[in-house]
Amino acid sequence: MVSNLFDKGSFCGRPERNGVIISPGALGDNLLMLPLARFMKQSLGLDRVDFIGHTEYIHFYPGRTCLDRIRSLDQIDFHRFFTAEKEFDLADKDPLIHVFSPYEWIISFLGVGHSDFENNLFFSVNCSRAAEVVFIPLQSDNIKEHISNFYIRQLIAATLQEMKFEGTDSQVPFIHSLESDPRIGSDILSARMIPTSKPLAILHPGSGGSAKCWNLENFISLAQVLRNKGMQVVFLLGPAEQERLSEEEKRRLAESSMCFTDLDLEQVVQVLSCAILFCGSDSGITHLAAGLGIPTLAIFGPTDSNIYRPLGSRVKVLIEPAESFSKEGKTDTTCAQQALEQLLKD
What's the pTM value of the predicted model, to 2 decimals? Predict the structure, then answer.
């Protein structure tokens, strides 16, 4: 850890010390930054860490994660930082000057490697205060460890300070349900005539990338197995799945189990808080379920689970053959069934 200089309360009446993370990423990308946010608080001694991103992916963070406040990426003129450096200028009361005035640590996943963006952001930040600005790539061909560890090591390398870090502890939850979440989730289920007396299993047969989607028939087979075990099964379908799936595929899912197609992310969290089991492909929702501590089976194939596996205390990763992620890739689900059974026992 850093010296006591960074410990909270070291100085009586000192000003609040704040940091911020700027991310253009989607749901899964942002969830995998939560260990970084926690590390910033613990090792840099920050009182508050904010998150600037697309609000549809992060609006549920305050109160459920270590992040204290969210801000909309779309309401800040970040596009101006891409202006050629010699043409970039700020008036005395330019809003960009004040956007970063609360922060002494700024971590940006936006504009990495774009010299004009980086220099213009440095200039804008230092118009209001001296602050540390660190750029971290969302992805890199050189990553040899879990992506969350990579992010933290990039921060450590930039600080030039001695910090103790032995790797992300996935046993410590990064997302917490609010006390009201299970109650509201139960209300959502009841409103759709889903009995809450049965144990709930949630399946998410989608992902932001179609190549990462395990064949739909495999999920339908698992749903049948779980129903035979007396469980209530619900399919979660987000905007990506509704666009990607054909009408016939949607019909097949609806005939198999109830489908939820109209939930926002906060409602997804609330419904997930009622579940005792989750299964999904490599997707943001799978990372969300894992982070909430729900027994989660993550089906991986095209992506490297050593780098992108979900973080959570009750997660199993199943590596399936590449062909099982194609449209014709129905496969034997025995291994998935066994993994789900083990999750329920653990």
Answer: 0.91
